[in-house]
Specification:
4 helices; 11% strand
């Protein structure tokens, strides 16, 4: 279809599409930032998100989940974690480890 349009019109349409795409991306980023500021960030983390949040390999989370050592939920074979429970679990681990010489 673009071969039927004059060159200038085709270029203008390309620029317009590019501008619309940039504005959509910017608006989406703005909405995500607003939700996070309003406290609407989901407390739920996937295995990938939890691994990034803790800066641990996923395999470590799988192992800790399988042994029941870390708070987690399982829904249809999918592991889920709550950010606040991970924070609490880590605080408890740090307190238990104080003063140990190991």
């Amino acid at each position: 279809m673009s071969e039927l349009l004059p060159h200038e019109l085709a270029r203008a349409l390309d620029q317009l599409v590019e501008l619309i795409a940039e504005r959509l991306v910017a608006r989406q980023q703005q909405l995500v930032a607003e939700r996070e500021q309003d406290g609407e960030r989901s407390p739920w983390l996937s295995i990938e998100s939890a691994a990034r949040y803790l800066d641990w390999p996923r395999q470590r989370l799988y192992k800790l989940s399988a042994s029941g050592e870390i708070p987690h939920y399982k829904h249809e074979r999918r592991l889920l974690f709550r950010r606040d429970e991970l924070d609490e679990w880590l605080r408890g681990y740090a307190q238990a480890g104080r003063g140990d010489s190991g």
